[in-house]
């Protein structure tokens, strides 16, 4: 079974631009979560989608948004990029997002904001 | 609110020796605990999880973890370390339910370095 895939793997943007990252979950998984990983803040939860609905949200500004499609694929968007948005963005999928569910992570998208 | 702590930023072990990576947690109810490993330029890989039952959980690559409710700990262990175990290890906790509070919280990570 194919794992979680994320595209693109690397992105370079400048301040003020916007960016869209894509995540394809493992086949049959309906929950997709997004995380931001930085050396200073570690792994921080952005949001979780299940059946095209945002079910959980972390403490990030409204510039960070996401959506999920009927095939469970998910995208996240960051508008008006800031230097501090440079990070590894990780997507994780699980069967239904329950508390005992195991999340499986993709390789991440490395975003650099100049 | 739930939280998880990994008190050691780095752990250094000689190859062949046993290793322990420490994790303590705080949740309001029964915890669900996870360990993940991250290799350079890669996503996180699932190692093992504790849901209920036996306090000793066995996982991938020869790793195991011991759940200790009285000490609120979930330390990761391996009897004999390999150089290839060198990586960044994350402990994570989640409490029960599907409520908005039931997010998975990751520790700050522990870098494990195995010297030949």
The termini of chain B sit apart by 41 Å
Mean pLDDT over the residues of chain A: 94
Order of helices and strands of chain A: EEEEEEEEEEE
- Tell me the CATH architecture of chain B: Sandwich
Q: Largest contact between protein chains?
A: A-B, 26 and 26 residues
Percent range for helical residues of chain B? under 10%
| CATH class assignment of chain B | Mainly Beta
Report Rg of chain A: 13 Å
The Rg value of chain B, from CA coordinates, equals: 14 Å
Shape of chain B: globular
Largest sheet of chain B: 6 strands, mixed
- Strand and helix order of chain B: EEEEEEEEEEEE
Query: What's the total count of β strands of chain B?
Result: 12
CATH superfamily placement of chain B: Immunoglobulins
| Share of β-strand residues of chain B | over 45%
Shape of chain A: globular
* Structural class by helix and strand composition of chain A: mainly beta
- SS content category of chain B: mainly beta
Task: Specify the biggest β-sheet of chain A.
Answer: 7 strands, mixed
And the CATH topology of chain B? Immunoglobulin-like
